[in-house]
Amino acid sequence: MANQSGWSNLRWPVKAIIIALPIIGAVWAAKHFNLLPGSDNTTTVQTDSLGNKTTTTNNGNSTEPKEKKGEPKQAGGEHRSFAYQPEKPVDGIMKGVVEVGASGFNSFVIKMDKEKRWEIISKDFGQSFAYEGLATTEDIRFGLKKYIGTMFDRGVASKNIHFVVSSGAQKEPKTLPVISELKKMGYVVNLVTPDQEGKLALKSVQPPSYHDNSFVTDMGSGNTKISWYDGDNLKALEGPGAKYYEKNTADDVVYNDIKTKASAVPKDHRDVCFIIGGVPFELASKTRDGEERYTVLNDPSTYKSDKQKVTSGVNIYKALVDATGCDTFVFDWDANFTIGYLLSLPY
Fold first, then answer.
1. Is residue 21 included in any domain, yes or no?
2. N or C: which end of the chain has fewer CB within 10 A?
3. Are residues 327 and 201 in the same domain?
């Protein structure tokens, strides 16, 4: 009888063990080194500076950060539209106004008709020149002439150029030589009180159809004006401006002051707040959609900045929200209280 092979001479239990050993070893290695789909991987959770969590497994896979439920979105992550469109003027004339403010100059050229409908032709928010660059009276005179010249170029007659000094600027010594030079150049310089300023802002920024359900805030560097219509009468209150930190005033003191004053706004006027000013300008810049006229601001908690003025302005904004419960603060890219001044003049 021929000799049989060694494998043939083995019993089946032994053969089964020999076959199973490599398989068991392969499965153990695959699971140990996470080579099998569905194997239990070690998971690492990392949290970034915004509190978002990123989950990473030891096989290199990761999941996207998930937004926390109830967490406010960062400024720039949300956009709400405000669809109101003002009427355009019919056969209007060109008028210009320069605001001498606490931080610098703003200028506006508008076309206005007999019905006081208006549209912006040009605007310059504080980019003309800074007070710090006006060292001498000659510097001031030269700068003003150049500035006024640009308004002439836009078709504004000399008699239709007006200068308005904000209530906050009147408290700043550095504005006095500017006012003096303007008078020497033959221009009438109009000084406004906080009450007048708030009412003029109301005329400029608040659409007629919103007289009965909204209020207006003009947040300047030197002060904040809150205004609304009480029937046919205009009401206005003054509080600290966004540069209150320069006077070493504490945040909570300003917060409580603004909150107290804003609480006077009638409850039926709190559906919308139309807001203007330097800090609202910066906040609106984060979420503006194209060239839209109106931008709805996000919740105050979403705005972070390394600029002290902006941080202080957000503190004022939060006080307004907390006092009124209003959740629709609409920044108008074209309006300014000085345009309200133009609207108050005879045609």
1. yes
2. N
3. yes
The CATH number assigned to the domain holding 146 equals: 3.30.420.40
Q: How far apart are the first and last CA of the chain?
A: 130
* CA 320 – CA 315 distance, rounded (Å): 9
Structure tokens at 276: 């203007």
Which residues on adjacent β-strands are paired with residue 125? 106
Indicate whether 328 pLDDT > 90.
yes
> CA–CA separation, 163 vs 144, rounded Å?
11
Please state, rounded to an integer, the average pLDDT across all residues of the chain: 81
Distance CA 333, CA 338 (A): 14
Query: Which of 149, 166, 191 is a domain's end point?
Result: 191
Picking from 293, 292, 313, the residue whose alpha carbon sits closest to that of residue 303 is 313
Residue 66 lies in a domain: no
Contact predicate 225/218, CB 8 Å: yes
- Compute the distance between CA of residue 117 and CA of residue 92 in angstroms, rounded to an integer: 8
Phi, psi angle pair for 121, to nearest 5°: -105, -45
Strand pairing class (161-165; 189-191): parallel
The 10s digit of each residue's pLDDT in 154-204 is 899 989 999 999 888 888 887 888 888 888 888 889 999 999 999 999 999
- In the Cβ-directed half-sphere of 194, how many Cα atoms lie within 13 Å? 17
Task: Give the DSSP letter string of 23-90.
Answer: HHHHHHHHHHTT-STT----EEEEE-TTS-EEEEETTS-B----PPTTPPPPTTS--------PPPPS
